[in-house]
Amino acid sequence: MIKSIKVCSKKDFTSLVRGLHILDSYNPDLPIKAYGQKYIFISIADPWNTPDSDKEKDYANGKDSHLLPEGRCVLNLDFGDYSFVDGESPEKDCMTLEDAIKITNFIYRFILFDEDEYKLVIHCSAGVSRSFTIGEFVQDIVFYHTTEKPPLKTNSVGYRNSYIRKLLEDAVFGPETYKYF
User: Are 127 and 155 contacting, i.e. CB atoms less than 8 angstroms apart?
Assistant: First the structure.
């Protein structure tokens, strides 16, 4: 069960993971535990490589900079922060329905099939749009299934990316979903 949701920037995510000493003991096949808590992570990187001059910086967020390898409790995705007006075509590096299905399948494992309590941490570059929209969506889906709305904590003011929200809703409720299963 997802009991709380934290949305943050890549820099804040890096500080959190280092502060919890997760890098020292991370095993992709096991739950992530630190200080009596269990964590799950969704890491959203930009769809391009990190410039060499930025690779060692905490805020580096290119597709080659995911902090933890993907595993049981870590989902790594690479897509840009784009919004579209109805009728416009999405750009090649934006979130896809396949990405949305990966997110919903990932979170549903913890909502429906795992009775342990988890803290969900979602990051993107700034922690404002992509991660906030996904966090808000997860909050709504948990409430839909459990009637408990986990708190959504942010380090800055977030805003909903309507394109990402629609893809997430389509992944759960839309007819296009069924062709992926």
Answer: yes
Pair 146, 111: CB distance under 8 Å: yes
d(CA 153, CA 121): 9
Q: Among all chains, which residue has been given the structure tokens 């389509």? A: 170
Which pair of tokens denotes residue 51? 């410039």
Helix axes 162-173, 97-112, angle to 10 degrees: 60
- Is residue 67 within 8 Å of 146, Cβ to Cβ? no
Reported as a single tens digit per residue, the pLDDT across 26-80 is: 999 999 999 999 999 999 998 888 777 777 777 778 888 899 999 999 999 999 8
User: Among residues 3, 2, 13, which one has the least CA distance to residue 123?
Assistant: 13
Residue 129 sits at the vertex; the CA angle it makes with 162 and 173, to the nearest 5 degrees, is: 40
The secondary structure of 102-164 as a DSSP string is HHHHHHHHHHHS--S-EEEEEEESSSSSHHHHHHHHHHHHHHHHHS----EEESS-----HHH
Q: What is the pLDDT of residues 120-153, one digit of tens each?
A: 999 999 888 999 999 999 999 999 888 889 999 9
Largest CA distance in the chain: 48
In 3D space, the residue among 120, 125, 93 whose CA is nearest the CA of residue 107 turns out to be 120
Running DSSP on this structure, what letter comes out for residue 90?
P
